[in-house]
Amino acid sequence: MRKVGLVVNPIAGIGGPSGLKGSDRLEKVMKAISLGYRKVSPKRTELFLKELLSILDPNQMKEIEFLTYSGEMGEIELRKFGIDPVVFGEEKEVTTREDTMEAVRHFIENGVEIILFCGGDGTARDVFQSLSGKETPVIGIPGGVKMYSGVFASNPRDAAELLYYFLLGETTLVDEEVIDVDEENLEENPNFRVIGYLKVPKYRKETLLQGKKEPTPMEEDSIKEEIAERIIEEMSPDTVYVIGPGSTTLKLKEKIGEYTKFGVDVYLNGKCISKDVDELKLLSLIEENKDKEIKLILTVVGGQNFLLGRGNQQISPRVLDKIGVDNMIVIATPSKLRKGYVKVDQEYKDFFDGKKYIRVVSSYFEEVLIKIDP
Q: Most buried among 21, 27, 135, 290, using CB within 10 Å?
């Protein structure tokens, strides 16, 4: 039998659509739940399992013994797909990082070959600390808000594919950074720090792993200025502009006026009409301004090449459906485009159905066509 550990942080990701920049603190989670936001990572885990069952035949599945934690931390998701796991711990209404760490310790004690976890950078940190230097490989199923670490698959489908190739013995193990961010001081004093490295399987299809977040080179600051100047010149009166987070969009927001560094801000006629909005506020603003044209301005996450689904989950599929892909303006410096493609999270794929390329403003005078990675 091949022993595989699976642990889900059920509250990870809930702080994305709610604009809370993370879910490391319990009060943030309770606030998001009170506002009506639903848990993200259990659904992401189900997508992973659905894909895994589609690529492994029944005989191969019989050779895998899943070890997991009780309730929404893996047990419920596995049983939903007819998988009978070995279960540790007791089901709780509210889970904590200690539960994640306890699950990982049980996995190690019982000799798992690999650990899959669904969450964000905070969950990756907890897994890293629980392993205490052991080199058991991991695959992160992206389910959080902040996913700057390089240990995550690009999406749940790719996580299933990575596990498949790992079990076939067709992957190599590489060291990937675990990056932690201080949520509480993200706006005033962003502190991105590498706390260590985890072993991650890598397959020759490089896009299965999302990669770590990379900063924009200093020499491209002038290009950001050019891009911002061009976008401002092209802005139309009585048009609502929803501008997402990122260093390139930040330069644009600085030139317009009031802004947040890591939030989604909304502008009309050269003024900020709403700062750091969540998904519900965005939907409300769109409804209030339905007589106006609405444009969405986004940039690409450096290194990871994500356009939607990393750090900007306030711009949910519901929001994108209201605005429309054709009203999206993408801006990015050349270093963020050097891979030749951009990625969108799995739940956004349908919006790009039939579109193979998007236009990206890459300087004052230049636009490029960039492939949307399937």
A: 21
In a domain, 256, yes or no: yes
| Mean pLDDT of all residues belonging to the chain | 86
Q: Check residue 212 and report its DSSP letter.
A: -
- The residue out of 157, 181, 208 marking a domain boundary is 208
Residue among 75, 120, 74, 127 nearest 98 (CA): 127
Rounded CA gap, 160 and 19, in Å?
29
Q: Which residues have C-beta within 8 Å of that of residue 251, sequence separation ≥ 6?
A: 221, 224, 225, 227, 228
Burial class (CB in 10 A: 0-12, 13-18, 19+), 225: middle
Helix ranges restricted to H, 73-220: 75-80, 97-109, 121-131, 156-168
CA geometry: angle at 304 spanning 324 and 309, to 5°? 35
Same domain, 170 and 309: no
CB 327 within 8 A of CB 296: yes
DSSP state letters, 314-369: TS-HHHHHHH-GGGEEEE--GGGGTTSEEEE-GGGGGGGTT--EEEEE-SSS-EEE
Residues 244 and 316: their CA atoms lie apart, in Å, by 12
| Range of the structural domain that residue 56 is part of | 2-208
Distance CA 206, CA 189 (A): 33
The DSSP secondary-structure symbol of 206 reads G
